[in-house]
Structure formats: structure tokens, C-alpha cells
Write a structure and sequence with these properties.
Structural class: alpha/beta
Helix content: 10-25%
Shape: elongated
Order of helices and strands: HEEEHHHEEEEEHHEEEHEEEEHEHHEEEE
Distance between the termini: 21 Å
Largest sheet: 8 strands, mixed
Length: about 400
């Protein structure tokens, strides 16, 4: 029985490992996803009271992360391990811009990264309140908020509202080519194809040209002309009773945007398209009350890997970041262990179990050896090992365990 227990434990370790940075932080086997363990009280409070927005908890979390990680990240994305969006949280994702060094996008330059523990590099802190949001969105939407929409006056703050584009945008807006004017003989009445004023289907739509320009992914001469509408009475905005695939509304103000008027309004983008940053180092962190299981590591890593891959995913109904930016932009989550500070808690690449052994470990196999942290063979203490980290060696494997 004892021998069976140990071999079962070692088999689990072969598949269910993560780098353990501290008692509360793990890096997954792919080396591109982190797992931060919160106390049950703190996690439940975060969910119940929207900790990202209503407390300093998000700042405490980033400061905790920077105790272990270097200031290597442009973005940090926190994700709570919930299957569905909690009813206590009134959004599917949120972006808190931390710094901006880009001119000509409608927002001043500033840097408050030090408040969150960064030495100055951190650009954005994002939060997804449930894990399916990684794949289905609003992941693309939240990344877009790093640059847009500060540019266009809108009936919906921070989003495009009733505004056209070459396609529907990640932050809302209709397809300009569907615009019809002088509806029912009313010069102030318009009709457009159905759309959302602040979003358009999660990760199911790419970025439009104006979004890509603001993000530094396209030059201004790639942006087609479009219209934006203000002074829109709420009661006038409705599904067209004659055609449910369209929206009708009246507007007191119609603003026509051209490439030149965008520059006149915002100024020239600095850095320009050629010199703008295209790849963004991102730390993805799963928040949970207990270490992730093998199945959870695989699921979350697969979804984050999909979002960050720099190739066509073969799914025309979904867009990863590379696809949504027309193959120009990329998100880099890789090699988290290389971003750890010296002495952060990992000194080699041996796997640490995200589980603990309570009590005594008894080995009944002659070929097995137990090595302590100082490299001393302590196999003779079999069954009486003090609390600590040990390496169990066999002829074919080496597994690190924690006896508690």
C-alpha cells in the first residue's frame, strides 16, 4: 500500500506541476501563466464587493507580484477563477490605464506606474472576472482600451457610441457603409446596420481601422472616412420596425471625420506607425483560493496560448490578438521564470508540486533516494523527515515535494 501511494504521487507529479515561487505564487508548466493564491476571505470579498474597483486590493496584488517579478511587463491581466461572471460584478472586463507615452490619441502623457509597484514600465492593469472571458472576450476589447477611445466625442464614455468605421469596432460602432440618411424624409433621422454602442461580440470581431491607427498598428492613410453622431435622444434609438437587422435614430449633430480632420483634432501620433511598439509583454495571473489543478492549468494555458499565438487559428468566428491586428501586433506571455527577480524563490527548473503532503512520507523502494535542500541524502530518515522541501529520486525521475 505504501509503495502504491508513492508511485501514485509521483505519477501525479509528472503531469500536475508548477514552479512554486512562494507559498502563494506559482508559474504554470508552460512558463507563461501565473497563479496567485488569495485567502478564502480575501477572494470572497474581492468577488462580493468588486475588489478591483472598490478597494486598494488590485494595487496590493500588483505590488505583491512585483516583489517576485522584474519590471518587465507592459500589461498585467488578472483573471478570477470563476466559471461565470459573478452577479456582484457589473462588467465582463475592465482596463485601468496606468501610464501613457503616446501623443496624438486624445489623452495626455502621464505615468502612475510606481503607485502599483512598477518602476515605470507598466502601461495597463486589466481584469477579467471569469475564466471563459480569456477566449470569448472581452480580452481584445480591454487591450484596445490601452489606446482608445479617448479620441472621438461619444454618447458612451470611453467607447465609440454611435460612430462609423470600416467595420464594427471592438469598442462599439457601426459599419459606415450601412449608413442611410434622410430616413422617412427627416434630415436628422438615420439608419445603420445593427451594432453595439460599446462592444460588438467579444473576440468575434477584429479591430477597425481607427482602433488600429490609435494602437499604432496602421498609418493614418489607412483609415477610411466615417461619421459620428451626438445629441441622440435615447427614445429615438431603436430597432427599425421595418427591418430588425437595422437601427434607426435621430441626431442633432453629425461629425464627419477624414484623415486630415483626425490629425487636426488630435495632432500627429507620436511615435508614428513605423516606430510604434507592436509587441507587448503581458503577465497573465489567475486569482484563486487554492492552487490550480492539472486540468485547470491545461485549460487556461491553452486559451491564453491561443490568444497570444502569432498565426491564423483556423476559426473565422474568433480572433486572437495577432489576427485582430492584421498580423501586425503581438502579445508575449512567455518565459515568466526569466522575469523573476534574483532569489525570488526558484533556483532551478525542477517541478514543485502544487500540493502538499500532510504528515509522514514512507518509502519502501530500495532504488529511491531522498535529498534535502542542502543536497544531503536523508533517505535513512525515511518516515521521520522534518517539514521542508525534498527531492525524491528514482532511476528514471526526480520529483520535488513539500512535506508539511
Amino acid at each position: 500500500m505504501k509503495r502504491f501511494f508513492l508511485f501514485t504521487l509521483l505519477a501525479m507529479a509528472a503531469n500536475m506541476y508548477a514552479y512554486q515561487v512562494s507559498d502563494s505564487l506559482y508559474i504554470g508548466p508552460s512558463d507563461r501563466v501565473a497563479n496567485l493564491i488569495m485567502s478564502t476571505k480575501d477572494y470572497d470579498d474581492w468577488i462580493a464587493n468588486d475588489g478591483f474597483q472598490t478597494s486598494n486590493k488590485s494595487r496590493e496584488i500588483t505590488k505583491c507580484l512585483y516583489k517576485y517579478f522584474k519590471d518587465d511587463f507592459d500589461c498585467i491581466m488578472l483573471i478570477t477563477k470563476e466559471e461565470k461572471c459573478p452577479p456582484t460584478i457589473g462588467y465582463y472586463g475592465i482596463n485601468r490605464t496606468i501610464s501613457n507615452e503616446v501623443q496624438g490619441i486624445g489623452i495626455s502623457t502621464y505615468n502612475s506606474a510606481s503607485y502599483f509597484g512598477s518602476e515605470g514600465k507598466l502601461m495597463s492593469l486589466m481584469y477579467l472576472p471569469y475564466v471563459d472571458a480569456i477566449k470569448w472576450g472581452p480580452t481584445l476589447h480591454e487591450f484596445c482600451h490601452c489606446w482608445a477611445n479617448f479620441a472621438i466625442p461619444s454618447v458612451v464614455d470611453g467607447h465609440w457610441g454611435i460612430c462609423g468605421g470600416n467595420t464594427k469596432g471592438q469598442l462599439g460602432g457601426f459599419e459606415q457603409s450601412t449608413l442611410q440618411t434622410n430616413v422617412d424624409g427627416n434630415a436628422n433621422k438615420y439608419s445603420v446596420g445593427s451594432f453595439g454602442t460599446n462592444a460588438n461580440g467579444g473576440n468575434g470581431v477584429p479591430y477597425n481601422e481607427m482602433e488600429l491607427y490609435l494602437m499604432g498598428m496602421l498609418p493614418i492613410d489607412s483609415v477610411q472616412e466615417f461619421d459620428a453622431f451626438l445629441d441622440v435622444p435615447r427614445e429615438s434609438f431603436m430597432v427599425d420596425p421595418k427591418d430588425e437587422s437595422r437601427i434607426v435614430f435621430t441626431a442633432g449633430e453629425r461629425i464627419h471625420y477624414t484623415q486630415q480632420s483626425i490629425i487636426d483634432s488630435l495632432g500627429v501620433r507620436v511615435p508614428n506607425y513605423k516606430d510604434s511598439q507592436k509587441s507587448f509583454r503581458t503577465l497573465f495571473v489567475i486569482l484563486s483560493k487554492a492552487p490550480l489543478t492539472e486540468a485547470e492549468w491545461k485549460e487556461y494555458d491553452a486559451n491564453i496560448g491561443w490568444f497570444c499565438q502569432t498565426s491564423d487559428d483556423g476559426m473565422p468566428w474568433l480572433y486572437n490578438f495577432w489576427e485582430a491586428t492584421r498580423g501586425v501586433g503581438s502579445i508575449n506571455p512567455n518565459k515568466l521564470s526569466s522575469a523573476l527577480k534574483s532569489g525570488a524563490g526558484i533556483h532551478d527548473a525542477r517541478p514543485i508540486l502544487p500540493i502538499r503532503i500532510e504528515g509522514r512520507l514512507v518509502i519502501c523502494e530500495e532504488e529511491m533516494r531522498i535529498i534535502d535542500q542542502q543536497g544531503t541524502d536523508v533517505t535513512s530518515l525515511n518516515g521521520n523527515l522534518p517539514f521542508g522541501i525534498y527531492v525524491v529520486q528514482t532511476a528514471h525521475s526526480s520529483t520535488t515535494i513539500l512535506i508539511k
